[in-house]
Amino acid sequence: MTQTLETILTDPARRPAVVADLNELVGQEVKEKGGMSGAAVKLGYQTVSKIRPGVVPAAVDRMLPQFAGALQPFYADYRAAAGSDFGAYLAGRPDAADALLGVTDRRAESSSSDALRKAYAKLRPNARKNVEEALPRLGTLIDRHAASAGA
Question: Which of 18, 24, 68, 89 is found 20 to 30 A from 56 (Cα to Cα)?
Fold first, then answer.
């Protein structure tokens, strides 16, 4: 039986490495943003990081099961098609960005921090494009961890 993405990514032996890799992915994506919208992303990221140091890895860890659940239908389709590159698969599925943003939207709405909600609201208009751009790397990262799980 094929393991679910949540089982793979949240396995206690693997989860710390998954969270560290995802945190690094977020940092790389932010660093590579350019232009005015990129400046806004960088400023928002810095603001959130200053308000709550360690907030990004903590948020990634906390939301990892929901992110995995949001991506599960895409992963199941990819596996059923005997795909060999989940990054390429996700690159062709921009609706995966909407699934991931649904998780962050719900989290932002329930946040008790006005500053975090405001920072998220400023970044949200361009978020879909930014997440879409990250999908290939995200898929590659997931493939690597799934391979180590024997999936």
Answer: 89
